[in-house]
């Protein structure tokens, strides 16, 4: 096996087992390939950290959406505004002409928001 083939095989093995790699594996591979291996290792570690960062951001975005929804659903405990009523006619999608929004739980008043146009969606 040539030196280049050996390094490519090592890189493939490392890619396949990156998450399950032990310190002994790293020590063994460094001894066999030296600086080339360390460069590969650093690049793969950077890629893995970027992937983890993207996953954490996705999870955080989902959490924030759920948190916001729950905050509005549990307005009596959180103090967030909530839709407290509707009025007028409904369009073909079931959306009312007017919605009433209470600024916080326990207030007697509400703000009326009137629909100013038909439902539209972006044309992806």
Brief account:
By secondary structure, this protein is α+β, with helices and mostly antiparallel strands. It contains four helices and three strands, in the order ααααβββ. Strand 2 (96-102) and strand 3 (111-114) form a beta hairpin.
Classify the secondary structure makeup into a structural class. alpha+beta
Average pLDDT number: 78
Assign a percent range to the helix content: 55-70%
Number of helices: 4
Please compute the radius of gyration using only Cα atoms: 28 Å
Helix and strand element order: HHHHEEE
Sheet bearing the most strands, described? 3 strands, antiparallel
Beta-strand percentage? 15-25%
Distance between the termini: 51 Å
What number of structural domains do the residues give? 2
Major beta sheet, strand line-up = 1-2-3
Unreliable spans are: none
